[in-house]
Design a protein that fits this description.
Number of helices: 3
Length: about 80
């Protein structure tokens, strides 16, 4: 008996993946360079007109609230929100 599986290949934008992992970062484990790149990806997503929906789908209310703080706080452009 032979079973064939078809795998659908989907292209996933790196910024979406990095944004999704934002809430899972742990202090002392994630290198600063990676944290910075994750934060840049999150900043890019909050510039999107559908940012609230995207962040809610990726990380629920927690990620949505973080994105809201970044959008509403000028400091969000210059540093990490933890």
């Amino acid at each position: 008996m032979s079973i064939k599986m078809q795998v659908q290949k989907k292209r996933v934008e790196a910024d979406l993946v990095l944004t999704a992992v934002y809430i899972f970062q742990r202090e002392g484990i994630v290198p600063i360079e990676v944290k910075e790149r994750i934060y840049v990806a999150l900043q890019q997503q909050v510039k999107n007109k559908d940012w609230a929906n995207i962040l809610t789908k990726l990380g629920g209310g927690e990620l949505y609230e973080i994105g809201k703080r970044i959008r509403n706080n000028a400091r969000g452009q210059y540093g990490f929100v933890e």
